[in-house]
Design a protein that fits this description.
The complex is a heterodimer of chains A (296) and B (333). Chain A has 296 residues and is an alpha/beta fold. In chain A, 39% of the residues lie in helices and 21% in strands. Chain A has helices at 5-12, 48-60, 83-102, 111-123, 133-149, 165-172, 176-179, 181-197, 227-232, 246-250, 256-260; strands spanning 37-42, 71-76, 125-129, 153-159, 200-206, 233-241, 263-270, 280-289, 292-295. Chain B is of the alpha/beta class. Chain B folds into two domains: 14-61; 77-316, 3-Layer(aba) Sandwich (Rossmann fold). Helices cover 45% and strands 19% of the residues of chain B. The chains are: A alpha/beta (296), B alpha/beta (333).
């Protein structure tokens, strides 16, 4: 198969390594390397999409505002991308970056340059909506050409991988292999893209079983997606809601705003192949504010 | 699953289809996932022709990537915020129902879910002059209640009739009829409904759990796949036609005894904003109080667990409500 010179260079040229994308989430020096997949798993309302926005903004922001200036593809399977929320996070971080740069002097920054900076950040983002698992498979094939033409594309975000789980089960009927067929094909294709193009993938997976026996039950955290996908995953982030501190509820007057902000916990288990094969783990907590995720 | 048919794209004729079927390639996904070189050898077709067919089929059936900047511009121009008519609820919802999203109201029996839906429909059709499609699956909607609410907003009978005409009511009682109706709306029903008055800006489904809850449970997963289908078409409709979708849900008790919205964990990911309605505990002497409290349990814009109380009688506020009641007495006498 022939490919043009630019395609060859785009394929072989090293894409930006995203090991340092968020060191507070991963165990020491254990961030996702080239070709690794991170699965973000958790029930509803535990901050998974907010984490994705945080990683997204970290990638597209300019270096002056603390970003990595890489291109990102966001595959949206259940229409959960809230552009207004994303833009407010980007705005807050850009402003924070601007004020730290210029110190305390409030120079009248023209609205034009704010708009231009935001437009530049947003142009690094590509969004695709998929409405069924067959469309997801075909779109991933199509994305291969996008990957080969843009060498600054280093991150693929999928929200969420489990959106078509029940419709696939309904379509597949009684045979499990038929049920998992399309997701398996998509996972195999993703594996090939990871090997050939050396990108990094973050994907969310919604929980489908409620935890009846308390927050520490391991039954609900068992992966339920197909085997080929589970083989791809190298890091797993388990998100949960932290129980509200009873002392906080007592203090009425003080810091009402902080009291309302729920705290979320993330537990990361890595079985990274690049390290010595040992498993690492780390737990961190964060709050969701106007400027996105803030680690505690 | 898109099955290969002749004439789908230039170059896909009957002979090629026959040789592809012999090589076990029946759908577009099979064709795209297979290795073109091997397939060309097996079917004795030129590699170039097969590659061109693959490219055209991919272009026809994939979703195209959109740049974030374009998506944001489009969203800015098409998103609207529809006030529900009640200032306390609007405060919870960050100034109202957003188009392009699903908002869920959950609550026990008698907690006021349908009344809130009526109030929102009346406000949108009368004040905002936009059409509303109200899908009633419980049989709890009566036009006389809508008229009563409208009478407290205006005394002009022409305006009342116009506002009532902008509310289109669909009555259905099972999930297949609901899917039919929603697909029909996506396929051109919304445009048809907009011909009369203003464009359709809200679709209210009261209640979505009444048609789905009987199908859940047990070993069959068909109920879950129907639920995800309903969720998918509601979201697609909300996004593509920029309407605000408002659905109501029942409540169940969790393992620890708390009240939580029904339809399980898989539905909980579907709405963007969720509100829980409850009766307010008042003195036992006051029976049938109309006070309700609304708690925000999921939102991407506000911190969760904020609570607001409101009275179901005065929908648009205390001042207007008092005079409205007097007018109603006059009209009755």
């Amino acid at each position: 198969m022939s490919e043009s010179g630019t395609q060859l260079f785009a394929r072989l040229e090293a894409r930006r390594c995203l090991k340092d994308i968020e060191p507070r989430l991963f165990p020491d020096d254990g961030g996702p390397d080239h070709g690794e997949v991170v699965e973000v798993y958790g029930p509803e309302g535990t901050g998974k999409t907010e984490l994705l926005y945080h990683l997204l903004s970290r990638c597209v922001l300019p270096e002056a505002a603390g970003g990595l200036e890489v291109d990102v593809v966001f595959v949206d399977t259940d229409y959960s991308l809230d552009m207004l929320r994303l833009v407010s996070i980007l705005d807050t971080r850009l402003n924070k970056g601007r004020t730290t740069l210029k110190g305390l002097s409030t120079s009248p920054s023209s609205a034009g340059s704010d708009e231009a900076a935001l437009h530049l950040c947003l142009s690094r983002l590509l969004v695709v909506h998929c409405s069924s698992s067959s469309q997801l498979l075909l779109t991933l094939h199509f994305l291969e050409t996008t990957l080969s033409s843009r060498s600054s594309l280093a991150l693929l975000l999928i929200d969420s991988m489990s959106a078509f789980y029940w419709s696939d089960r309904g379509e597949g009927g009684a045979s499990i292999s038929k049920q998992e067929e399309k997701l398996s094909k998509s996972s195999e294709l993703l594996g090939r893209l990871l090997r050939d193009y050396r990108i990094t993938i973050f994907a969310t997976c919604h929980a489908i079983r409620r935890s009846n026996s308390g927050p520490s039950s391991s039954e609900t955290d068992r992966p339920f997606l197909c085997r080929p996908w589970q083989r791809l995953v190298t890091h797993r982030l388990l998100c949960s809601r932290q129980e509200a501190d009873p002392d906080q509820a007592g203090s009425d007057r003080g810091d009402g705003e902080q009291r309302r902000r729920r705290v979320f916990r993330v537990h990361c288990t890595s079985s990274s192949l690049s390290s010595t094969g040992t498993k690492g783990s780390r737990t961190s907590s964060f709050r969701v504010t106007d400027g996105g995720v803030e680690f505690i | 699953m898109v099955i290969l048919r002749e004439g789908m794209c230039p170059g896909l004729d009957e002979d090629l289809l026959r040789s592809l079927r012999a090589a076990d390639i029946r759908t577009v996904e099979d064709l795209v996932s297979s290795d073109s070189e091997e397939l060309a050898q097996k079917c004795s077709v030129s590699y170039k022709a097969l590659f061109a067919i693959r490219r055209v089929l991919l272009a026809q059936h994939t979703a195209f990537p959109v740049s974030g900047a374009d998506l944001y511009e489009e969203l800015l121009s098409s998103t609207a915020i529809l006030s529900t008519g009640n200032p306390s609820l609007d405060k919870l919802l960050d100034s109202g129902l957003f188009t392009g999203e699903i908002t869920e109201l959950s609550g026990g029996p008698g907690s006021g879910k349908s009344q809130v839906c009526f109030g929102a429909a009346v406000h949108i059709s009368h004040h905002l002059k936009q059409s509303v499609i109200y899908i009633d699956t419980t049989g709890g909607l009566t036009a006389s209640r809508l008229l009563q609410m409208l009478r407290s907003e205006t005394t002009n009978t022409d305006e009342q009739m116009e506002a009532l005409q902008r509310i289109r009511i669909v009555r259905l009682f099972d999930v297949y009829a609901l899917l039919d109706c929603l697909y029909g709306l996506c396929g051109g029903g919304l445009q048809q409904a907009s011909v009369g008055g203003g464009s359709v800006k809200a679709v209210i489904v009261d209640s979505v759990s009444a048609v789905i809850a009987p199908l859940l449970g047990g070993k069959q997963s068909e109920g879950m796949s129907l639920m995800t289908q309903v969720a998918g078409v509601l979201k697609t409709m909300a996004k593509d036609f920029s309407v605000a979708a408002l659905v109501t849900n029942h409540v169940t008790r969790s393992g620890s005894g708390d009240v939580q919205p029904g339809l399980g964990v898989s539905w909980s990911h579907v709405p963007r904003t969720r509100i829980l309605l409850e009766r307010v505990e008042t003195a036992p002497s006051v029976s049938r109080s109309s006070l309700r409290s609304a708690t925000l349990i999921k939102s991407s814009r506000q911190p969760c667990c904020i609570k607001e109380e409101f009275d179901l009688r005065w929908w648009s506020g205390a001042a207007g409500g008092a005079s409205g009641k007097r007018k109603l007495d006059q009209a009755g006498s």
